[in-house]
Structure formats: structure tokens, C-alpha cells
Amino acid sequence: MLIAFDSRTGNVRRFVDKLNIPAVQIEETMTIDEPFVLVTYTTGFGQAPDKVLSFLKKNHKRMVGVMASGNRNWGEGFARSADTISALYGVPVLGKFELSGTSKDIERFSQEVLAVASY
């Protein structure tokens, strides 16, 4: 399973670097021709980043799940980009993490990726 990700401050990149899963940082114009899980940050007051939304317009059909980072200080806006993307494209939210995630976040996400990969 491929991880497609975007990172603004480096937290998502640090999270993805802890995984033992092939990963690629997205570009708006790129096309992914295999199933992938999206890992993204949350911006503003809980919005999905514009770059990620542009990427998904072309690539959402291969996405099998989404996970997002956020800051718990935003309360209900915490990692809400995952909820937005899930609602837009009908994929499950595989988790949410703060900053660059904990070892438990890594373990839980890896299990979720294995579960969706076996579908």
C-alpha cells in the first residue's frame, strides 16, 4: 500500500518517516495509479489544504482511506481535514494524530493500513 502525503510544517513528514510503508509527497499535478492512503495536515480552523483537494480531484478514485494531523488546541477542528475528505470521497478516516504522532499512533495507523490493504 502506498502512502500519499502532504506536510506544511514537517509534522506529517516526520509521522510518515516513522512508518515502514512506501510513501510519496503529493504534487497537485501528479497522478497515482495504485491504491493509496492519504495522510494530510489540517489548516485554518479545520480545513483540508487546497493543494490536497486539488490533488484529490484527479486521484480520489484510488484513495482507500485518510488520516490527518492537527492540534488539539483547535477542539472540534482537530484534524478535521480527515472528516472533510472522508465525507467528500466516501473513504474511512483511519485516524488522527497531533504534531508528528506518538508510537501508538504509528502502530494503530499501520494496523489500519493493513486492514484496508487486505480488502
UniProtKB/TrEMBL annotation:
PANTHER family: PROTEIN NRDI. This is Protein NrdI. Belongs to the NrdI family. Coiled coil: none annotated. It comes from Cohnella soli. Probably involved in ribonucleotide reductase function. The lineage of its organism: Bacteria, Bacillati, Bacillota, Bacilli, Bacillales. It holds the Pfam family Flavodoxin_NdrI. Gene3D superfamilies: 3.40.50.360. The gene is nrdI.
